[in-house]
């Protein structure tokens, strides 16, 4: 989850998110380059007595300020497209989970082997235990095996929602009547938080997502226990 | 007989100004980009590389498990 007053991205917990972080650093570096240049030029322009009302055109400067931005755009586009295609690769998931958005909770279905399904409601603030995070904890978490490709099929039962977990680099709209697919690999064990990312009514801010990444044997134990309890 | 003044520069004033300021402008922006690269990008890349170089997922998982943060697996005491 984010720390108070955090400005940057959360620590990456998936390879795709790491790539996105590095790309963002690259793009931000270019932004700083352009911004310092423009700031310097603005200051130089307002601090001169030289004025000429009769300049009509200049081929040289037109060429410069067309070619230079085109080159910069290519420098941004190449890494961007690389990540785009990386995210789109055929990934052969080990597990498929359906995440259904409702007003105002998520439900998860693990139907690869047995029929496991459960709802995931936010824990109200007054029911939190010490150490738990306000507006982020849920009664049931989406548990996944770590270091395995996971496919998530996202949809909604009523209005638009969006299933997002920033540290995994995942966000996918939940559209009623439509199945959207996303995939990720959790690089390490841990608990990763997200929140509904499409306005969906009064409690849009109160339907968080918690993904718990554990070794495979513990995931199998958990799913057997959940099936028994169901 | 008075001394005549030197004729002031009347042309090329913009070019002179540009010759002075543009290299500084481009230089400063390049310095800003390089500074960002070495102050932010490289430390971040190194931090991620160092984190995963010696990362023992089982050890970290057990430490987290004993801290009680998981719902699917409880600490060994419980």
From TrEMBL, chain A:
Its cofactor is Cu cation. The lineage of its organism: Eukaryota, Metazoa, Chordata, Craniata, Vertebrata. This is Cytochrome c oxidase subunit 2. GO terms for biological process: ATP synthesis coupled electron transport. Component of the cytochrome c oxidase, the last enzyme in the mitochondrial electron transport chain which drives oxidative phosphorylation. The respiratory chain contains 3 multisubunit complexes succinate dehydrogenase (complex II, CII), ubiquinol-cytochrome c oxidoreductase (cytochrome b-c1 complex, complex III, CIII) and cytochrome c oxidase (complex IV, CIV), that cooperate to transfer electrons derived from NADH and succinate to molecular oxygen, creating an electrochemical gradient over the inner membrane that drives transmembrane transport and the ATP synthase. The chain crosses the membrane at residues 27-51, 63-85. Belongs to the cytochrome c oxidase subunit 2 family. It comes from Triplophysa rosa (Cave loach). InterPro entries: CcO_II, CcO_II-like_C, CcO_II_C, Copper_CuA, Cupredoxin, Cyt_c_oxidase_su2, Cyt_c_oxidase_su2_TM_dom, Cyt_c_oxidase_su2_TM_sf. It holds the Pfam family COX2_TM.
From TrEMBL, chain B:
The keyword Mitochondrion applies. It is a single-pass membrane protein. GO terms for cellular component: mitochondrial inner membrane; respiratory chain complex IV. One of its GO terms (biological process) is mitochondrial electron transport, cytochrome c to oxygen. Its main location: mitochondrion. It is found in: Mitochondrion inner membrane. The keyword Membrane applies. InterPro entries: Cytochrome_c_oxidase_VIc (IPR051389), Cytochrome_c_oxidase_VIc/VIIs (IPR034884), Cytochrome_c_oxidase_VIc_sf (IPR037169). SUPFAM superfamilies: Mitochondrial cytochrome c oxidase subunit VIc. Gene3D superfamilies: Mitochondrial cytochrome c oxidase subunit VIc/VIIs. Keywords: Membrane, Mitochondrion, Mitochondrion inner membrane, Transmembrane, Transmembrane helix. The chain crosses the membrane at residues 20-40. Pathway: Energy metabolism; oxidative phosphorylation. PANTHER family: CYTOCHROME C OXIDASE SUBUNIT 6C. Component of the cytochrome c oxidase (complex IV, CIV), a multisubunit enzyme composed of 14 subunits. The complex is composed of a catalytic core of 3 subunits MT-CO1, MT-CO2 and MT-CO3, encoded in the mitochondrial DNA, and 11 supernumerary subunits COX4I, COX5A, COX5B, COX6A, COX6B, COX6C, COX7A, COX7B, COX7C, COX8 and NDUFA4, which are encoded in the nuclear genome. Belongs to the cytochrome c oxidase subunit 6c family. Component of the cytochrome c oxidase, the last enzyme in the mitochondrial electron transport chain which drives oxidative phosphorylation. The respiratory chain contains 3 multisubunit complexes succinate dehydrogenase (complex II, CII), ubiquinol-cytochrome c oxidoreductase (cytochrome b-c1 complex, complex III, CIII) and cytochrome c oxidase (complex IV, CIV), that cooperate to transfer electrons derived from NADH and succinate to molecular oxygen, creating an electrochemical gradient over the inner membrane that drives transmembrane transport and the ATP synthase. This is Cytochrome c oxidase subunit 6C. It comes from Triplophysa rosa (Cave loach).
């Amino acid at each position: 989850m984010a720390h108070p007053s955090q400005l940057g991205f959360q620590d990456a917990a998936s390879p795709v998110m790491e790539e996105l972080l590095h790309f963002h650093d690259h793009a931000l570096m270019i932004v700083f380059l352009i911004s310092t240049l423009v700031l310097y030029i603005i200051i130089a322009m307002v601090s001169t007595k030289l004025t000429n009302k009769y300049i009509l055109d200049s081929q040289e400067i037109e060429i410069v300020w067309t070619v230079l931005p085109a080159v910069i755009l290519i420098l941004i586009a190449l890494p961007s497209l690389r990540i785009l295609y990386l995210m789109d690769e055929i990934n052969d998931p080990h597990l498929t989970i359906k995440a259904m958005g409702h007003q105002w909770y998520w439900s998860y279905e693990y139907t690869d082997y047995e029929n496991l399904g459960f709802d995931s409601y936010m824990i109200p603030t007054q029911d939190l235990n010490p150490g738990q995070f306000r507006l982020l904890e849920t009664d049931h978490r989406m548990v996944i095996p770590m270091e395995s490709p996971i496919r998530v099929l996202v949809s909604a039962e009523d209005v638009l929602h969006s299933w997002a977990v920033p540290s995994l680099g995942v966000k996918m709209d939940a559209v009623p009547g439509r199945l959207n697919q996303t995939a990720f690999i959790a690089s390490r064990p841990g608990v990763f938080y997200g929140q509904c990312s499409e306005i969906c009514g009064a409690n849009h801010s109160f339907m968080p997502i918690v993904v718990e990444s554990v070794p495979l044997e513990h995931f199998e134990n958990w799913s057997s226990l959940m099936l028994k309890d169901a | 007989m008075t001394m005549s003044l030197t004729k002031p520069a009347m042309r090329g004033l913009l070019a002179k100004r540009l010759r002075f300021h543009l290299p500084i402008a481009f230089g400063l922006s390049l310095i800003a980009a390089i500074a960002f690269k070495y102050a932010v990008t490289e430390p971040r890349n190194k931090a991620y590389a160092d984190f995963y170089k010696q990362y023992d997922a089982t050890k970290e998982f057990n430490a987290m498990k004993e801290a009680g943060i998981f719902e699917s697996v409880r600490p060994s005491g419980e």
